[in-house]
What does this fold into?
Amino acid sequence: MDMNNINIEEIVKQVLSGMTGNAPAATASAPGATSAGIPKTARVAMLTDLEHYELKEFPIPPVGDDDILVKVEGCGICGTDAHEFKRDPFGLIPVALGHEGTGEIVAMGKNVKTDTAGKPVKIGDKVVTCMIFKDAPEITMYDLNKQNVGAADVYGLLPDDDIHLNGWFSDYIFIRGGSFGSTFFNVSDLDLKSRILIEPCAVLVHAVERAKTTNILRFNSKVVVQGCGPIGLICIAVLRTMGVENICAVDGEQKRLDFAKRMGATHTVNFKDHKGIEALAAAVKDEFGGQLADFAFQCTGSPVAHANIYKFIRNGGGLCELGFFINGGDATINPHFDICSKEITTVGSWVYTLRDYATTFDFLKRANGIGLPMSELITDEFPLEQINEAHKTNLAMTGLKIAIINK
Ligand SMILES: NC(=O)c1ccc[n+]([C@@H]2O[C@H](COP(=O)([O-])OP(=O)(O)OC[C@H]3O[C@@H](n4cnc5c(N)ncnc54)[C@H](O)[C@@H]3O)[C@@H](O)[C@H]2O)c1
Ligand SMILES: [Zn+2]
It folds into this structure.
């Protein structure tokens, strides 16, 4: 491990110490411990061509002093995986994808004693990974609270190398120490589906944190959530865990709007029922008893939806735009009517910080605790052998979150 990484570990520990307050008292495992029954090889789903995964078998390398071998239990399919599957925009093919994964530590080096938050780890613990610290000083050394992971690497989006076990769509993932040292968290106190949902949930914990910086989002604000895919639905869940109780969900799919109600939306508006933006805005206003929203979250990748959302917000209100993770084109707004004369405060939100990632574990416990149907966000489960079918189902958009589950 080089000096950079030692410093980073210290910084990360400082940032996160005390955040994961309910760490169980774990016993330290023996140095270089392994559990019995580790096979010599592991299967990895490699994307070898556009829309084509192949299951490849690779040797499991010896576990070094800083390494962790994890037996994969499951991994969600992300929108980013869908882009890679269809177009390889990052030029990674052949690549072992899957970053929304979780599994059980089956072997680890003698130097691995705690996770990134300082919580002890042992064989048998369940973990997730977050960002990798490489040569990105502004992320690694500067201010972890302020930086998001936008420019950081993660396991599941790495170029292929001679180890190959770099993605969570696999039987085993090999998390290396040293310059490939990844942040990782012991999340043994969360069930499998919650663990698979951590990464997308962190996006919304971050978005709501960004929204709070405007000082407009309050305990019982009237909030519009536009777009009820997984991102919008989880947004509603985060708001509910914060005590926001006046939530109007806007989408064009009735099934998704019904799910939004179960997730805690108090009102829904189907944009297909209203012709033109004036009628749509009037419908939102009606739902709030004749008032416009104090705050709105834009959770679609549609330029029209971005242009529409200003009309739902009151003078002096706020907006969080998080739907344009990729470039979806330009949107036409009127700066006079939409922003300037209304004094709208806007924030953008892009992925998350390491702190948000750790906060997300507590969010999931709270959401499950108040009975939100989080696990039902995972609508389709496939075994690793059906990775191609799983991605096609994801592209067909018939479900919400599609996951690979290893039996
Ligand atoms: N900021 C981030 O870090 C981040 C992270 C992940 C995803 N995203 C983005 O968030 C967006 C939502 O993700 P998702 O997985 O929920 O996608 P999704 O496609 O499943 O959901 C989008 C929803 O928006 C609805 N919609 C489309 N046009 C609309 C309109 N004009 N008015 C109202 N609703 C409309 C659709 O019916 C759909 O239900 C995507 O564009 C994605 O790229 C952002
Ligand atoms: Zn993702």
Summary: The two ends are 35 Å apart (CA to CA). Confidence is low (pLDDT under 50) at residues 1-8, 15-32. The chain has eleven helices and 17 strands. Residues 79, 203, 226-232, 250-253, 256, 271, 299-302, 304-305, 322-323, 325-326, 349-351 surround nicotinamide-adenine-dinucleotide (ligand 1) (CB under 6 Å).
